[in-house]
Amino acid sequence: xxxxxxxxxxxxxxxxxxxxxxxxxxxxxxxxxxxxxxxxxxxxxxxxxxxxxxxxxxxxxxxxxxxxxxxxxxxxxxxxxxxxxxxxxxxxxxxxxxxxxxxxxxxxxxxxxxxxxxxxxxxxxxxxxxxxxxxxxxxxxxxxxxxxxxxxxxxxxxxxxxxxxxxxxxxxxxxxxxxxxxxxxxxxxxxxxxxxxxxxxxxxxxxxxxxxxxxxxxxxxxxxxxxxxxxxxxxxxxxxxxxxxxxxxxxxxxxxxxxxxxxxxxxxxxxxxxxxxxxxxxxxxxxxxxxxxxxxxxxxxxxxxxxxxxxxxxxxxxxxxxxxxxxxxxxxxxxxxxxxxxxxxxxxxxxxxxxxxxxxxxxxxxxxxxxxxxxxxxxxxxxxxxxxxxxxxxxxxxxxxxxxxxxxxxxxxxxxxxxxxxxxxxxxxxxx
Length: 432
Ligand SMILES: C[S@@+](CC[C@H](N)C(=O)[O-])C[C@H]1O[C@@H](n2cnc3c(N)ncnc32)[C@H](O)[C@@H]1O
Description:
By secondary structure, the chain is α+β, with helices and mostly antiparallel strands. The protein folds into two domains: about 5-280, 3-Layer(aba) Sandwich (Rossmann fold), CATH 3.40.50.150; about 365-430, Archaeosine Trna-guanine Transglycosylase, Chain: A, domain 4. It has 13 helices and 21 strands. A hairpin with a 2-residue loop joins strand 19 and strand 20 (about 410-415). Helix 7 (about 165-170) packs parallel to helix 9 (about 200-220). The longest helix has 20 residues, at about 200-220. Bound molecules: S-adenosylmethionine.
């Protein structure tokens, strides 16, 4: 068994009492692994029909499945690159279902990278409403951007700031907020030896003080009746019950609806804490809509591209930042005071006399919205060639073409003289 910090063991013993031995024995078991289906891209029935991996349903997540990592490698499958599923620790999948997301909700994920909760929220919103996905760390935010893009996000804004700044802009605005708080990571011990090495009791207290701040700021951004879900992947009482109890005691209008601990000796998962709070007090919201300038001649090249290559005609909710063209969410708040990484869907780059579509656009589009689709089946080695960045001989000359795997768009290529030149982004190319 791995060697665990003395202080951690003493504290868990105080919480678990008679169950302590059972908890300790769970460290002799293998870590659990899960994947979560993106139902915006593939329905459950079709995914099951493909019969790719041996899967077992995760009881608390409709879209989640256990897989056994000694039998299969779902992270090395083109459908993963296509955003058909996301690899996520099974107990972490218990958080988003507690939000009770309805189509059209405005949702905030305050601590979002690398995107486990945000990708789940996106597929539940099904490109309605709005997701503001925030991450304070400018390095971690890159993976968040890539994962949301892969999932086919349209009504999603990515911000890079702290909770105090968010609160200044979004007071009283959101229907649902998730705070998957930075924590001491005790639930990572079985899968990550570095988490054990990094653990100290002072880290527990440091995290607690950040968590107190984030939850207070988060609550201010909820509208009346809104739901806030707070979660951690740690076991300490200080970062879980203590944060929640203190918060509830300080806020008359906050009602604790539910509090749950997932322990690794009780369920198949690494462990999590989740608390669901409802806000009953009024909150004045002063958020204004983003003012949009109607673009016409500026986006002429985009419209030409759309006519030639797509079967859709996007609403005029465009915004230009330099030569980057974005399609803003249907309802978009004013973001002038925030550092923003993505304003909705990045459509592409407007160059002089031409438009170059973005990778994000290929993931957003449904196959029927694309005029030229080169579909490749999973058992054809050509799909791996494409993902490695190689050219493909298609025998056609259709210009901008979307490559798809099992009918799911995965990236662009440009065809001429029977050859498809590869436009799969260099940084995402596979090396397997
Ligand atoms: C547990 S992780 C989030 C995991 C993510 N929700 C997921 O499911 O993929 C916590 C995140 O909080 C961020 N964070 C750290 N300090 C923060 C702060 N003061 N305010 C907001 N976020 C913070 C960290 O950079 C980290 O990405």
